[in-house]
Amino acid sequence: MSELEEIRRILDLYTYLVDDSGWDRMGEVLTEDVVFTVRGTPVRRQGVEAVVELLSGGASRPLMHLTANVMVDLAPEGGRATARSKVLTPKPDGSAGLVRYEDSLVLTGAGWRIESHEVAPVVGAWRTPGE
Questions:
Q1: Residue ranges of the alpha helices (H) in the chain?
Q2: What are phi and psi of 123, to 5 degrees?
Q3: pLDDT digit string (tens) for 53-102?
Q4: Which of 38, 65, 73, 110 suits a disulfide with 43, CB 3.0-4.6 Å?
């Protein structure tokens, strides 16, 4: 498997784990000191446990994450990469959101891991039933 394929697999696995509540496996995709932020908000968590606590709580969790337009750039010196993707998040009440993920990844002894994950809401992209 190429580096690009390995990175795409990690990015896809992240959304599957979130959707399926695979919290005990998040160490397979995140570094121990991962930083999770939501642009334009005070949300900032550091570490796998803090990220899991944030993501596993709340009734407003989407039904799933539908990811598209994934762009991965490998650092010329190797061992690092950045990725951008667009994510549609339909919710149980019929509303949906559109966000952009901006990730920094690092190659560890266990393979590629996300070391920084920023969620950037796309302004004006939220839709609610009846709109």
A1: 3-19, 48-56
A2: -60, 130
A3: 999 986 668 899 999 999 999 999 999 999 999 999 998 888 888 999 99
A4: 38
Measured between its terminal Cα atoms, the distance across the chain in Å is 44
Tokens for 19, please give them: 């959707």
Q: Which of 55, 113, 111 is nearest to 83 (CA)?
A: 113
Percent of the chain residues topping a pLDDT of 70: 91
25 membership: H or E segment, kind and range: none
Pick the closest to residue 64 from 28, 104, 17 (CA basis): 17
φ and ψ at residue 39, rounded to 5 degrees: -60, 135
Structure tokens, 111: 């393979």
Is the entire prediction scored with pTM above 0.85?
yes
A 10 A CB-CB count for 73 gives: 12
Positions of E strands within the chain: 30-38, 44-46, 66-74, 80-90, 96-108, 111-121
123: enclosing H helix or E strand: none
Q: How far is CA 124 from the centre of its chain?
A: 20
Which residues lie closer than 8 Å to 104 by C-beta, 6 or more apart?
80, 81, 82, 114, 115, 116
- Determine the pLDDT at residue 125: 54
